Amino acid sequence: MFKSLLLGLLSVAVWGQAATQYEIQEILPPDNATELVSIALNDRGQLLGQGHTEEGSFQFIWDQENGLRRLSPLLQATDMNDQGVLVGVVKLKSGGSRPTVWNPATGEAHMIWDVPEQAWPIAINNRKRVLLLSAQNEAWSFYVWDEHDGSLRVSAQPAGVWPSDFNDLGQILFSGGEVGHTFVVWRDGSPVRDIAAPEGTWAFASAFNNRGDLVGSLGCLSGVQCQNSGARVWMGDGREIQFGRRGERIGLLAINDQGQAVGTMSNQRIGPSSAIIWDEASGLVSLNDCIDPDSGWRLGTALAINAQGQIVAMGTAHSEGVQTKEFRYHRLVLLTPTSP
Description:
Methylamine Dehydrogenase, Chain H, 6-stranded mixed beta sheet, globular
């Protein structure tokens, strides 16, 4: 069944029925940790995350075979690719720090020297190319590094225009600025796509995939009344999918190469927020309808989805007071599909 209403190139997403069921597994924190949060999920089902204790924070990698393993406190990781290779900042014994690509499985590491000293690594793709940011004066400069060609300066953008994502083709997604500009460029800075927001609105995209599908939102500029604001999927073929009916608030945070998008939504009907998944075949579905109702879990936000359809989400047990004002989703879980 086609799960959107076509209006020219603009389609309105509608609710569907759960077609896939998921097994839910909590990523248990160590005894002295109070909370875990997700940084990245790869196609192997490995999770890069961060935990908090009374003494401070720590980072970890989790997978089904090895469980949770803490990373060295000398490395602050910012992303992980599908081979399990990390990028982050390593503290130097001589003082200061350097962007570094590190493979925990082999111990192999590459420090990135040919960028400004304070350059910050944002993302690493499956070709082991790294996207970095360097803030200088009133502009932000961006670099792409790989181990064969070194670093290539992409462009300088006004402060506030932020690279949201970096795909395997070497395309970079930018969003932000005073007018909410969203665009995609190649790693040499040449243009790929520009999302033209209607007059009086801004567009922000949080993620995109290798097909060129973007997820994000369209909003009204300050002091302007506009229509059709809310969550969006901008498809690689030029179509635009609009989300949200009256009273619904939807946020889409990630999309995989199969075109499955995940995020969160809330409305008066469902009460506290619910983790959601969307694709063109099944429509918009609450992930709480896709797990065993007797599991004791409620899912609030879906943060990431990999090519296998595994989803990282934040949830809580029903017994933890879902209806209280102090309630929040604070447990990190992995959802694995058990049916197609």
